[in-house]
């Protein structure tokens, strides 16, 4: 009995242990939140789900860093291209649609050696396939886009994999580097409310196609399909409000 009493006096109370573990967990969670911009997107599917096989086929270009093959949306790993609605300045200071120019350059590059094959890297936070893609002749799509100034190395995800290509593009003033531009990730941050730049808003855009019209303005709740949402995004001056996170996909719940 005396031994048991000594043990109870010297033992650490369970409540104290619980509080210590809880405090440590809270501190770890706070640290994770504060530095989340430095960490890759992690989900249960990334850790536990099966890794997809490489995808090969003829690609449809969505924008300068995203394609679609066999109905699967694929985001190029480690690079970021101007958004579809983004404008940049050329060597003389005149605006030009650098987002559309980037997509056109990608389309021409892929058409020269089909099909494209993409190897899985990860899923992004919207459960889209992020991959490394190559043409039929083995040319790296991401490396070509950066080296020709149609996209930027995105250190947050690339760890500088395309820094050499970007340095070459800047030195030779290719693509974006011929004039002035805003990095796509900065452009998205400054247009997170969906508003287009004033210089673009001043241009009257009234596009019509297949019964779709930019007037009146629409909302995701009024749109019935992903294809329609993407049409509004790429053809209407107000379309960016359908893409709140600026990742090039309108109305995520539909797509």
Automatic annotation (TrEMBL):
Domain annotation TNase-like: ranges: 52-179
List the SUPFAM superfamilies: Staphylococcal nuclease
Q: What is the annotated signal peptide range for this record?
A: 1-28
Q: Which key words tag this protein in UniProt?
A: Signal
The record's PROSITE patterns line, in alphabetical order, gives:
TNASE_3
Entry's InterPro entries?
A: Excalibur_Ca-bd_domain, SNase_OB-fold_sf, Staphylococal_nuclease_OB-fold
Matches recorded under PANTHER family: BLR1266 PROTEIN, EBNA2 BINDING PROTEIN P100
- What name has this protein been given in UniProt? Thermonuclease family protein
Q: Which organism is it from?
A: Mesorhizobium humile
Q: What is the lineage of its organism?
A: Bacteria, Pseudomonadati, Pseudomonadota, Alphaproteobacteria, Hyphomicrobiales
């Amino acid at each position: 009995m005396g031994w048991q009493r000594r043990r109870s006096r010297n033992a650490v109370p369970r409540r104290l242990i619980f509080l210590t573990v809880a405090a440590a967990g809270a501190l770890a969670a706070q640290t994770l939140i504060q530095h989340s911009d430095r960490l890759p997107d992690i989900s249960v599917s990334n850790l536990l789900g099966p890794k997809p096989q490489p995808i090969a086929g003829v690609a449809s270009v969505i924008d300068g860093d995203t394609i679609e093959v066999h109905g699967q949306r694929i985001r190029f790993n480690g690079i970021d291209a101007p958004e579809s609605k983004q404008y940049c300045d050329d060597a003389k200071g005149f605006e030009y649609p650098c987002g559309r120019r980037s997509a056109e350059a990608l389309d021409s590059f892929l058409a020269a050696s089909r099909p494209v094959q993409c190897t899985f890297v990860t899923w992004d936070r919207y459960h889209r396939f992020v991959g490394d893609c190559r043409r039929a002749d083995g040319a790296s799509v991401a490396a070509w886009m950066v080296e020709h100034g149609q996209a930027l190395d995105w250190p947050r995800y690339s760890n500088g994999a395309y820094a050499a290509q970007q340095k070459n593009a800047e030195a030779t003033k290719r693509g974006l580097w011929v004039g002035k531009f805003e990095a796509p990730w900065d452009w998205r941050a400054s247009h997170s409310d969906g508003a287009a730049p004033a210089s673009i808003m001043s241009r009257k855009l009234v596009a019509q196609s297949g019964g779709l019209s930019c007037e009146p303005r629409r909302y995701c709740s009024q749109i019935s399909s992903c294809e329609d949402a993407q049409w509004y995004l790429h053809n209407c001056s107000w379309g960016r409000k359908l893409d709140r996170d600026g990742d090039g996909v309108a109305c995520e719940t539909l797509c």
